[in-house]
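User: Can you predict the 3D structure for this chain?
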Amino acid sequence: MKLAFSTLGVPGLPLPDVLSLAGAHGYHGVELRAHPEEPVHPGLSPAERADVAGAFKAAGVELLGIAGYARVAAPGDDGPVLDEIRALLELARDLSAPFVRVFPGGGDAPSPEEADATAARRLGTAAEDASALGVRVLVETHDSHRTGADLIRVLGPVGHGSVGALWDVMHTWLGGEQPSQTYAALAPHLGYVQVKDIASTDDTTPLALGAGVLPLAEVVEVLSRNGWDGWLCWEYEKRWHEAAAPLPGLLDAGREHLSRLLNESA
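Assistant: Here is the predicted structure, written as structure tokens:
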């Protein structure tokens, strides 16, 4: 498996500095948070996009994915959601990123069944754009669909190879799902896995990998046992927890922890 980190852990950091961190600390790739407050977002011009792609190539670092905020199960008209997804897909295409992350966001829907139907309908439409652009849309295990069992209710009906799942290990754990259950549900659709660590169900302040309660060893064991060889991406939520320790000082230990788990599971 290859290792990456998300720029959610280094909010606002200029791209050259992000790429320097990846190279200096032995990470193969980076997931870019696509938001207007970040250096990379859908508002970039064609020339700016070319500069970003060139910077990744020159640094020898892979761009794992574009982490967007479209909410595919949210109530309302489909048009604005589909426009937001297409903008993310076009950005990913221009930057040669294989994945775009979206959220479920169905918490305000009249019912879980309606949220499922809304998400499946929009993803089915977005799948055609994604296929044409050579990018996969990944729905994260998050908010209204935080477990693999929740997410498969949407991905199953869509049934398109350009739509898949992003496994956030914190949310499936908070949802009471065991890693083996999550993998069984999402394996046919799995794009990559976001790892992290926290102190408890009541305190989700990000911690160094291995310093909290999340079942990272079990997750890596399940993935290894099933021959999965995709990406593990450390999503350190510094943006939402300003008091958390700075990510750069944790990157070496985080890489070493994940490498040790991979070796032990081999």
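The chain has nine helices and eight strands. The first helix runs from residue 15 to 24.
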